[in-house]
Design a protein that fits this description.
9-stranded mixed beta sheet, two-stranded antiparallel sheet, 11 strands, about 300 residues, alpha/beta, Spore Coat Polysaccharide Biosynthesis Protein SpsA, Chain A, globular
Length: about 300
């Protein structure tokens, strides 16, 4: 899996925006959302309100991929992001893998910002979270990828128990991690290098397999592979998928760094995947008048 050259010469001074965001929206509820939500539109409304607050004073260009969504979803996004430039793309239900592929293409093609953000529709953000993420990326040019999510798996699964670099800034401990989900920030220049690996997700690689290939933290350690069986079959299977789909990059590509905050600046809105050490119910209660009593 080789690298891809950027079609243009990257020069951050010439970009109009601080961040280019491509958001994937799907109208059905998956898993068990936090705090008893059953209406996907209301879940997205809450998610997008916090996403907007996470942007703060940033200059943001937003693309919204609407995968088989009713018109109410487009109307909601247009209303919430009146102050931003939004481009919509209506898709006929192409699914998770294909919409991720569209995100890659759009963020590679765009010429609005050097920093880019892959967003999903079921994340909850703290105010100014994206501002803080961008500040970290600007202060640390060696950082390739960044997530605002402190995944609970970091504390329980062997695959994530590494001794990585740390940087404490403004009350947040940023640390290097092995993997995250498919909501993350990177640089357009890094995206150009790694698009081939990221695209393997559209060809049956797992999200963990993608990150294992990019960060390479566990890639060359047979003992780590054997120990990963204690994490469940998904983890060793992802090791194998990483080698199957991206072996050229693992052997010859550059090792990338992925950083995550502790405590989290955002969380997945799946009830079993809430980031620890943040009172997310209080965050929600500040945005809406009523939350279901079940959690």
């Amino acid at each position: 899996m080789g690298t891809q050259r950027c079609p243009v010469n990257i020069n951050p001074q010439r970009f109009k925006h601080d961040l280019a965001v491509c958001l994937r929206v799907y109208p059905r509820v998956s898993g068990t959302p936090i705090f008893g939500f059953t209406d996907k539109l209301e879940l997205i409304r809450l998610s997008l309100r916090t996403l907007k607050e996470a942007m703060g004073s940033l200059r943001v260009k937003l693309w919204a991929l609407l995968d088989n969504c009713p018109t109410t979803y487009r109307e909601l996004i247009a209303q919430l992001f009146q102050e931003q430039i939004v481009e919509f793309e209506e898709l006929p239900g192409i699914g998770n893998e294909a919409t991720f592929g569209r995100q890659i293409e759009i963020l590679l093609r765009q010429d609005e910002a050097e920093l880019v953000y892959f967003a999903e529709d079921d994340y909850l953000y703290l105010p100014g979270a994206l501002e803080r993420g961008i500040a970290f990326m600007r202060r640390h040019p060696e950082a390739d990828f960044l997530t605002l999510y402190d995944h609970p798996d970091y504390y329980t699964r062997y695959v994530h128990k590494i001794r990585g670099l740390k940087a404490v800034e403004e009350g947040v401990c940023w640390r290097m991690v092995v993997s995250t989900c498919l909501t993350f920030m990177t640089r357009k220049s890094v995206l150009c290098e790694t698009a081939g690996v990221l695209r393997t997700f559209t060809r049956k690689n797992s999200d963990l397999g993608v990150w294992l290939a990019l960060t390479k933290v566990r890639a060359f350690n047979p003992w780590a592979f054997l120990r990963s069986f204690s994490d469940g079959l998904f983890v060793p299977a992802s090791h194998l998928r990483a080698w199957r789909h991206a072996w050229r990059y693992i052997l010859f590509g550059r090792r990338c760094t992925l950083w995550a905050p502790e405590p989290a600046l955002a969380t997945h809105m799946e009830s079993k995947c809430l980031a620890p050490n943040v009172e997310w119910r209080k965050v929600c209660e500040q945005k809406i008048l009523f939350l279901p009593k079940t959690s």
